Amino acid sequence: MRYLGGLLERRVSDFRYYNVSGVIDEFERAIVKELDFELETHNMEKFRSYFENNSKICTPKNFEEYSTMRVLTMDFIDGVKITEMQDANIRADGKSIARIGAQCYFEQIFKYGFFHGDPHPGNLLIKDNNTLCFIDFGIMGHLDMDFVNNLAELFTYIVDYDLNGVINQLLYMEIINDNVDIKSLKYDLMDIIDQSYGADIKDLGGFINEFSTPDLMEKYKIELPKDFILLGKVLGFLEELGRSLDPNFNTIEVTEPLIKKLLAKRLNPMNILNYKTQYLFELQHIGKDLPRTISQTLLKAKKGQIGIDLTLNSLDEFSSNLDKMVDRISVALIIASLVVGSALIIQSGRGIPSPELGFSTIGTVIFLIASLLALILIVIIVRRN
């Protein structure tokens, strides 16, 4: 898979926007993680610590003394699959479960940056009193908190139907670059929102999945982080599941307060105090390294070892074109020399005579070679133009 992925990215330029190598790397990591029960135990305990005070979220307990890398022993969850709860004899209702599940997932994403990456019905069980249980922690999504904050801002722009804000945020997150056709992209974003969801956006996961279609990725050279793609898949599945439990389920109604609370906390001026230790360490490192850096720079200057690496793309292109032009002129001069030389030989009657032709064979051969080279050069020039 890795070989084929690399071959696609090298041979087909458009495939590099799909980050094929990154997807294959992530697939490999996921397979390895699925087989590592010690890692799954760690994920399960970490997840349980986040929701241990939430009576509506249930996580199995691991029995460490009976578990190894190949065997995982944990609580038996006496529940039913989330898709079978309507037909089961259980005290729970779909509307409450849909809301609890959405709140839990967005808390995983936006509060902890650590979320269950495989939420199919077999991994989501329901118990009495609207209790949602998660099992199978082999695949977990990990999000950098800077990415989470940027994602929260992007979702806010989407919910507010602020297309300029969405585009600026996509640029800031380096999902698109400055060379895209902004006007065309804005119309495509409007089509995604208007045609698929109307003025009232209900599905953030659906929006992500629509935005990451092959046509749009190729058209705007979109480069999506692997976390973004996994997130779209998870949110899209949850939103479909939520509507199956509650036809009026609206993701935004559940998650918008959490996202805005997160952004309000981030924009709080007092939040700077949380970074003071980090800033002090960075300043200390700069102060410590600065004298040595200055000394090394001055020493290199004294020895004449400082150079300037200047790259001009237009100059490189001009140089390449100039080299090709000089090569063609050189070939043309050689051809002209052969033509003139062959003509002189034929006129002088020297060389190996040819009674059939009435003039020199050597001169004729040289003339034919020169004509062939001239024809090749003309074809190359015409094809290039």
Question: What does this molecule look like?
Answer:
The chain folds into four domains: 141 residues, no CATH class; 130 residues, no CATH class; 30 residues, no CATH class; 72 residues. The protein is mainly α and 385 residues long. Helices cover 61% and strands 6% of the residues. The longest helix is centred in the C-terminal third of the chain and has 36 residues. The model has no long low-confidence stretch (mean pLDDT 79). Strands 1-5-4-2 form a four-stranded mixed sheet, with helices on one face. Strands 3-6 form a two-stranded antiparallel sheet. The protein has a two-stranded antiparallel sheet with strand order 7-8. The protein is built from 14 helices and eight strands. The radius of gyration is 34 Å and the shape is elongated. α4 packs antiparallel against α10, α4 runs parallel beside α11 and α13 packs antiparallel against α14.
